[in-house]
DNA sequence: ATGGCTCTGCTACAGAGA
């Protein structure tokens, strides 16, 4: 089974890319982030005509996460337990959706950006990751053999070698010790970040800014990552970063990351 | 690939992204 994650940066602007990607790769489960639309605006028919089912949550032009699956999509859950809220009045944002697909509990996650160090959004980001750690820890406590994939845009570069120039990021978000510790909390809860296990090379990126010719110069970041529960991690036989999806006309600034999972 | 940002709502620009 193939499970992929992709920050698509508007599903309406790139639905043709997404469907072409599914047809080309045969991915069974695709987790999307930054769909940037409301539920009724999501182009579900384009996926359904290819034999996929869709679960989506989106409230506005911001955020939005989805799971697209051709191996079932059961027990859809919008948001995880005790997920932090944002705004005034406080409300749950469309940043997490879970579903059981082909026997794997897949979570499509869009971790808050944080904006600037010290910004309330930065505190929100750290809190969001801490609550996710607690939820993920609970899932393993309830079932140590759980098949759980936490995939998405984490907005954290765990290592200095995950960004094109650590000096550029000094004083910026995504690389601070606080963010990296919050990200590591998921590992401390028992999960393995499987993309690095299979793709350990430094300067392996999943995102390149649209500005300043960052992609042709390969000045990117590795922020689209996958935590797998112990029982799932041992079934992951390979990971692929679909770098070519950053090329061509109107790409997303992120590319898909594909996990190959062996059958049980 | 041969270039120096893009999406949304809205219709002028502002907010957000990272």
UniProtKB/TrEMBL annotation:
Mg(2+) binds at residues 7, 34, 153, 155, 253-254. One of its GO terms (molecular function) is metal ion binding. It comes from the Bacteria. The record marks 155 as: Transition state stabilizer. Probably binds two magnesium or manganese ions per subunit. Residues 4-254 form the Endonuclease/exonuclease/phosphatase domain. GO terms for biological process: DNA repair. This is Exodeoxyribonuclease III. The gene is xthA.
